[in-house]
Amino acid sequence: MAARYGAGQYEDAFSAPRLQNWSVARHCRRRPSPRDGSTQPLANDRGHLLPSVRRSQVSPWGTFVGTWEMPARIPPPKLNLTARSAAAAAQLCGWIRTPTALSTACNGGGTVICGQHHGTSAP
Fold this sequence. Notes:
It is built from three helices and two strands.
């Protein structure tokens, strides 16, 4: 058995003839393009937050909701009422408008309600 493994031992399985990948590889840049703008510091040399940084008055750790505090069902980011009955649309809208731990959290997000259920206008 060889004491050193060559790269061809593993790369042979991923060669173009074995994968039946006969297309020409697309041209990629050698290095990624730099981003525009600059980064603003949030803390000083001692690790304390700068006075200009917005802070939560509720908790020193902010309003982030972790996994254990999240509700059992997370509402969708976009809700379409087009193909729903009036009763189902009312039930969903009531469920989404019920305040939960995610309602006021910084990582909560909001649900956009679009479309119209049969017979009436959108809420």
